[in-house]
Fold this protein.
Amino acid sequence: MLSDIDFAARYRQHLDASGRQPKPVSAWDARAAELGAKPLGGSYANAFVSRLDLSDCHTLLDVGCGPGTIGLLLCDRMEHVYGLDHSPAMLEQLVRRAAELGADNVTSIRRAWEEPWHDVPRCDIVVASRAGLVDDLDDALAKLNAHARRRVYMTQLAGGHFLDPEIDALLERPGIGLPDHIYALNLLHARGIYATLDYIETPSRLAGAESADAFVQRATRILGELSNEEASRLAAWYARDPERGRRGGASMRWAMLGWESPGS
């Protein structure tokens, strides 16, 4: 029976088996200025916001807020927005951008998933955008539910791969993939919560290269140093189908889950 499966334990086993090495806070700090320089909005953020039911919602908690990608898009529709992140540099970008917008209703909170949240305010709506790849998903869902008066929305990777699996296989790095949104759906179901499910597609992180050499350079920036053999394989893959190469292979797909807070 489905109820006999411990999805929290299965998630942790899958995460361990994937070999994922969590990025340290310093890695996110290093990217903060780059991400903070991007204009607000964009295809993913706009698609995320368009799927939110904001009725009767006046306060928002943006978990894993980064430089305010989601929260700042909503600050003019909320009485108050709280941005929570474990990266101090990301929070600095959030505060800076809020000031540039003239938004005096944005508060930053430095906090990690695994830390106590006893002093994090409870808000009408809680969002966690592309921030759900955590060590303990069951605990993360409990925190989201405990801090939402009305609704929760989160996005998680669908399919378990950030890049086209064909490219991972080409580099002989396929692994088993990361745990995806199916675990969250089942953990919510075990709580008696029937989440809605939608998908947001975004271009591959390797998209936009206009030549095989540019594609290899882009892959090196994202994946780290490549061997000569790996670079040759990627260049040959691009050359076989330059149009697909310019797209970076298959697009990324994010699963968007939404549900009413159990305490609403």
About this structure: The mean pLDDT is 94. The first strand starts at residue 59 and ends at 63. Residues 207-248 form one domain. Strands lie at 59-63, 80-85, 106-110, 123-128, 148-157, 196-202, 252-260.
